[in-house]
Amino acid sequence: MACAAGWRPGGAIGFGGWKNATCVVQIPREPAVSTSADSPMDVGPTIARHLVRQRLRALREASELSPATVAELTGWSLSKLNRIESGDVTVQPLEVRALLRFYGVEDKNVVDTLARLSQASRTRQWYSRYRLAGDFQRFVAFEHEAAVINIWQALFVPGMLQTEEYGAATTALSMRLSPGDREVQARLKLRMDRQWAFRERLGQPGAPRIVAVLDESVLHRPLGGPDVLRRQLDHLLTLAEQKDTYSFGVIPLNLAHHSGIGGTFELLQFAGSDHADVLFVETAAGTDSLTTDEEQTGLFKTIFQDLLRYGLTGEDALDMIRARRAALPGA
Question: Taking every annotated instance into account, which residue ranges of this chain make up the domain HTH cro/C1-type (predicted)?
Fold first, then answer.
């Protein structure tokens, strides 16, 4: 008996009983990720982990083995299997091969590719030294591997575009602490490291891009004082000279109704078709949320496209930044 198993990001999840543990599962070949030996090295550890957990879950469901049955066969706890399938933990290549035997997968290319992806998912990254947790940890990891970082910000210049002094002022204000506070400095260090990691990728194939849309009020809000804001606007204009890397838009104050009025967000997009978009919404209360749900990411993708359509872009956006910079005291 042959079982057909397909997978896609954000697919529906269901559990079945154990009907035939020895059926052979065939995975449809995805054009963006080949089964060659070099394939896993084309993605970072976060995407690799995501692919492994998606495919393992799809293969288990196709084999019609329940999580409880797999846990019994492997001698694992049910929580370990659930954490593997949710992407909360990595899985060793030998464990992947063992699972695939239970799932009846006999295609050597499929087995080898998933084993190599599992190895790639265990690579330690620069952000591992930070004690990040929850959705924010996942966001930083996904951001580091995104091909396009789309940002809508209505309150301040986004973290990936901030100068250090502007970032210190913004962080201190949001945390109600002084700029020199240890916790403020720790968060600022992470933000600067995120920028450094982004710049490090610019010399590599498939270099990333940032598309940022700001509300006009951001250009007027003197966080840190007029001098700090002026240097921040200068920094934006300098970044804008790298046209293949940075694109800016501005939503004018006189645009009374627009779809971004509901809140700010970041939408991460990835090369190829193997990974769904990632939506991240950060709040001052710390209730960050991250999702790959296709309905949600599709909605916010449309919102972002509307912001670009109805706002100022290109030289029009830069002219507004220049005009605001020139109007600041001491300019």
Answer: 56-111
